[in-house]
Design a protein that fits this description.
The complex is a heterodimer of chains A (571) and B (120). Chain A has 571 residues and is an alpha/beta fold. In chain A, 28% of the residues lie in helices and 17% in strands. In chain A, helix 2 runs parallel beside helix 16. Chain A is globular. The two termini of chain A are 37 Å apart. Chain B has one domain: Flavocytochrome C3, Chain A, domain 2. In chain B, 42% of the residues lie in helices and 0% in strands. About 7% of the residues of chain B have low confidence. Classes of the chains: A alpha/beta (571), B mainly alpha (120).
Chain lengths: 571, 120
């Protein structure tokens, strides 16, 4: 399934047509009970399901402890795009001077919020959350040396040297923790405005550099780690004692049985492209009202497999999300999103289905609100019983179009062949991904006729919203919503443009229930023996999210899972 | 014979156009390089070391005149907007990541954020 752009879009359209008849069901996970196979096709100490950041870190850590593993990856190697790879490659660490207890408290606030005095409850089992916060405090100060132990050439950005590294300055420990965040590179800088996917190793940046490093770590340990591509796991194999002793996978046209003498680690991501899980877990209109801008390979397989062996769930509906654009391109019936830093830029506003502004657009891109701003997109009007903000509309004039790409072309879906984009935004306009009209009245009519607006747009409202916003720009203050001042530049220069915005982000974050050793738990809290998990499928960031948190936990929780799995007694 | 003459001519023309682009700071618009030349009377060599520049100046060259990165951060501290482009999570960056001398400057931050700060 190599993805030539044209074919991909063509296929996506065809699939979209078939979406309603069940084409979106995830592949292979079935409901029938699993028998211990008479013959194993492969034997290893640890089976890692999913070759993303967490899986790679788990396998590397286990290999460093002398333990062998097989990584089952369902994607084709040539177009193996994990969310780690498609990400900004941002991770958390600390300055040289840091306070461990403050660091732990800050992590605890992110994970569960149990140390915030105003909170009624912890969003995670408080004992588990404390254990996880300890891991954070133990691992992240040394995260760069560990990454450089894979390849000394890895040279991340220097990180916050003056300003605050913590996104939530009022949280316990934010100041004293010495928090810093870094971006991934081999030069000490990230500067590319376009994809680095096809550049030589040392010129890669962002998630591309981060994942290239981890892949090198895996390949360099080939005596201990074997990767099977195009091998989707379909079932966990429990023995009569309920211990997980292997995995069944589809490989080269048949089902293979892979024995895990020590443990299985689930690191196969969220459920961004599982239609039924989205409908079950996401807020609001979980399938049509949402889009994601990471890999299309995340179909919740690990969640299904873990549930089948009795795993409990935790915060499955969590997704660090905002309002993002999604062109009319679908994968298995679901919209593919793009990272949309353009929301709230000068010369643009955001309006709801009726043409009214409802939020300071800068809250969608600014801390502390940005990763929670999707809450506005899924807003349910209790009087009209409608979702008035789904989709919302980014209204733009010619100046924002001319100012640069509306997406970040260095990462995410545009950098990985899913949604090709050009610097001048013109391709997207030509394709109709961005609607264009000479007047605001015409633009309002186009929105009204858009199949997802359901004729709710009131052209006079849009006109009024633009006028009022432009007046606020002249006054230098957005009294109505409090948008950040630097962005108050009018929507004034024809032609005008519009793109629909949906709730969405890079990934979902929940949720297999697990403890601080990263062992998967039943609903009762009982450990499912020899089954571990890390990464987005079981994110530790269950209360709030700071950018880069998912990449960081791939390392912290991935390593911890790998270390503990390696410590199991071999069967 | 005729064709090869034409080829040579085209080659010369191409080269001279290329060379003149190299020489002209920024095709007549008000770019950083123009301002350095007109407002401070600098020569190409002041930044590029030679008057027929062969590569972009190193960051140190910028800092020779503009002070340390920390000084710059102090200059751009902006309590009202709470955003300081010189104190980001990237740490000190090469100046020409954002400040382009011969084309329109950009704000690298805005690849992910939306700070909308005007970059000179």
């Amino acid at each position: 399934m190599s993805i030539s752009r044209r074919n991909f879009i063509k296929k996506a359209t065809v699939v979209a047509g078939a979406a309603t008849i069940g084409a979106m069901l995830p592949g292979a996970v079935n409901a029938a009970p699993v028998q211990v196979p008479r013959k194993w096709d492969y034997e290893t100490e640890i089976v890692v399901v999913g070759f993303g950041g967490a899986g790679a870190c788990a396998a590397i850590e286990a290999a460093n402890a002398g333990t062998s593993s097989i990584i089952l990856e369902k994607q084709v190697e040539k177009t193996h795009y994990s969310n780690t790879r498609m990400s900004g490659g941002i991770f958390h660490s600390t300055k040289k001077e840091y306070n461990r207890e403050a660091l732990k408290q800050y992590a605890l606030a992110l994970f569960s919020g149990q140390n915030l005095p105003w909170k009624l409850e912890s969003e995670e089992d408080p004992v588990v959350a404390e254990g996880l916060a300890d891991l954070w405090a133990d691992y992240i100060p040394g995260i760069i040396p560990w990454l450089q132990s894979i390849d000394p050439a890895f040279s991340p950005t220097m990180g916050s040297f003056l300003g605050k590294g913590a996104s939530f300055p009022n949280f316990p420990g934010a100041k004293e923790s010495g928090y810093s965040t870094h971006s991934s590179s081999f030069t000490g800088y990230t500067r590319s405005m376009t994809a680095t996917k096809d550049l030589p190793y040392l010129q890669k940046e962002n998630g591309e550099a981060f994942f290239a490093l981890l892949k090198k770590g895996v390949v360099d340990r080939k005596d201990k780690i074997k990767v099977l591509y195009e091998a989707p796991a379909v079932d966990l194999v429990p023995n009569e004692k309920g211990e997980i002793i292997g995995v069944l996978a589809e490989y080269k046209g048949k089902t293979i049985a892979v024995k895990a003498k020590k443990a299985v680690i689930l690191t196969c991501g969220g459920y961004e492209y599982n239609f039924e899980m989205r409908r079950a877990f996401l807020e609001g209109q979980g399938t049509e009202g949402w889009a994601f801008y990471g890999t299309t390979a995340n179909t919740g397989d690990g969640i299904s497999m873990a549930m089948k062996v009795g795993a409990g769930l935790a915060k499955v509906g969590k997704a660090a999300s905002r309002l993002i654009a999604a062109p009319p391109v679908r994968h298995n019936g679901m919209k593919i999103g793009i990272i949309t830093p353009a929301v709230g830029r000068p010369h643009s506003i955001m309006v709801n289905a009726f043409g009214n502004r409802y939020l300071a657009e800068t809250k969608i891109t600014d801390d502390p609100s940005r990763y929670f701003s999707y809450k506005e997109a899924v807003h349910f009007d209790i009087d009209t019983l409608r979702y008035p903000n789904s989709p919302s509309w980014l209204i733009m004039d010619q100046q924002i179009i001319d100012a640069g790409p509306l997406t970040n072309m260095a990462i995410s879906t545009s950098a990985y062949d899913f949604l090709p984009w050009t610097k001048d935004n013109q391709d997207a306009i030509k394709r109709g991904w961005i609607m264009k009209a000479d007047t605001l009245e015409e633009l309002a009519e186009m929105i009204k006729n858009h199949p997802e607006n359901k004729e709710q747009m009131v052209p006079e409202n849009l006109k009024m919203a633009v006028n009022k916003f432009n007046e606020a720009c002249t006054a230098g203050e957005d009294k109505e919503f409090g948008r950040r001042k630097a962005t108050l530049k009018p929507v004034e220069k024809a032609p005008y443009y519009a793109m629909p915005l949906y709730a969405g982000g890079p990934n979902t974050k929940g949720g297999i229930k697990c403890n601080a050793k990263r062992q998967v738990l039943e609903w009762t809290g009982k450990v499912i023996p020899r089954l571990y998990t890390a990464g987005e499928i079981s994110s530790a960031l269950k209360f709030v999210y700071q950018g880069g948190g998912n990449i960081t936990e791939c390392v912290v929780m991935g390593r911890e899972a790998g270390r503990n799995a390696a410590g199991e007694k071999a069967l | 014979m005729k064709i090869s003459t034409l080829l040579v001519f085209i080659l010369i023309l191409t080269f001279s156009v290329f060379a003149s682009v190299q020489k002209s700071p920024s095709e007549g618009s008000n770019r950083l390089a123009d301002r350095h030349l007109s407002e401070h009377g600098s020569s190409c060599a002041d930044c590029h070391s030679t008057d027929a520049p062969s590569s972009a100046p190193e960051t140190e060259k910028c800092l020779d005149c503009h002070g340390s990165y920390e000084d710059l951060a102090a200059l751009t501290a902006n309590p009202e907007e709470e955003i300081n482009p010189h104190a980001s999570h990237y740490g000190p960056l090469p100046c020409n990541n954002c400040h382009k001398s011969h084309e329109k400057s950009v704000l690298l931050c805005d690849q992910c954020h939306n700070f909308a700060i005007k970059v000179p």
